[in-house]
Amino acid sequence: MTAALPHKLFAEFIGTFFLTFTICLTTTFFSILSGETSAAFPIAAVLMLMIYSLGHISGAHFNPAVTLSIWMGEKINKKNALLYLVIQTIAGIIGALCSIIIYYGEFQTTSFRLVSLLEYHNFISIMLSEYIFTFALVFVIFNVAISEKTTGNNYFGIAIASVVFTGILTVGTVSMASFNPAVSISLVVVGKLKLKEILWLHITPQILGAITAMYAYNFIEGNN
Questions:
Q1: How many Cβ atoms are within 10 Å of 173's Cβ, its own excluded?
Q2: Which of 59, 58, 52, 62 shows the shortest CA–CA distance to 21?
Q3: What's the pLDDT tens digit per position in 12-25?
Q4: N or C, fewer C-beta in 10 Å, the chain?
Q5: Is the Cβ–Cβ distance between 58 and 65 less than 8 Å?
Q6: How many domains, the chain?
Q7: Which is nearest to 54 in space by CA: 91, 25, 23, 101?
Q8: Cβ atoms of 52 and 145 closer than 8 Å
Q9: DSSP code of 110?
Q10: CA distance 211 to 221
Q11: What is the average pLDDT across 115-142?
Q12: Is 152 exposed, middle or buried (0-12, 13-18, 19+ CB in 10 A)?
């Protein structure tokens, strides 16, 4: 039985909240043991858990770029896609705010400053990192969670989370490995990134990567 729209939206909120909340805690406030555990592990783990928990309700997008590509691929209607985008963005902001509340003391006493992604890497490196791994993320999602040929598989959550895990370990020091507009916005809220920079260094390549991944999937599917 298909879930009602309010249930789908609530599922998207929960999944996006836990994803952004975990990312903000581990990358901004360093809640993990420094030097002993990579942030990639808890981030990939919470994403995988939320996908398996809520995928049957909302499709487990938790990412505006994913929702946009799925809408363009005609797998979700325009109204639902727009509401997904809104709820994912709100969830990302609330997830970031909750991380600040939990680490309020550290946020007040530590000298936080907005970080420019361009301090250590050029814009081509950053944009290419976000584009390539957003492409990989959406391409994998279409193949393991959207395609009728892989319906009913038990590995879709592991496959999707593995892309994020790999991306964080590979280009995390270059672009902060967002691959998700809601995540990028949450990092702005906690003072980790600059809003004017993420619009073109993160969100633009993320959207382009998601769209081209959808077309790549359609091309491959059309020849099988």
A1: 12
A2: 62
A3: 999 999 999 999 99
A4: N
A5: no
A6: 1
A7: 91
A8: no
A9: S
A10: 15
A11: 91
A12: exposed
Tell me the CATH number at 213. Answer: 1.20.1080.10
Identity at 43, one-letter amino acid code: I
* Tokens linked to 178: 């967002």
Length of the chain: 224
The helix (H) or strand (E) run that includes residue 102 is helix 78-102
Q: Which of 47, 78, 77, 205 is nearest to 141 (CA)?
A: 47
115 bridge partner residues = 193
C-alpha span between 42 and 26 (Å, rounded)? 8
| 37 or 77, higher pLDDT | 77
Contact criterion met (CB below 8 Å) for 126 and 218: no
- 130 near 178, Cβ under 8 Å? yes
Single-letter amino acid code for the residue at 210: A
User: Using 50, 70 and 90 to split pLDDT, how confident is the model at 109?
Assistant: very low
| Structure token pair of residue 211 | 């769209």
pTM here is 0.92
- In which domain, by residue range, is 41 found? 5-221
Q: Which residues touch 156 (CB under 8 Å, ≥6 apart)?
A: 51, 55, 144, 145, 150
**Phi, then psi, of 193 in degrees rounded to 5:** -135, 160
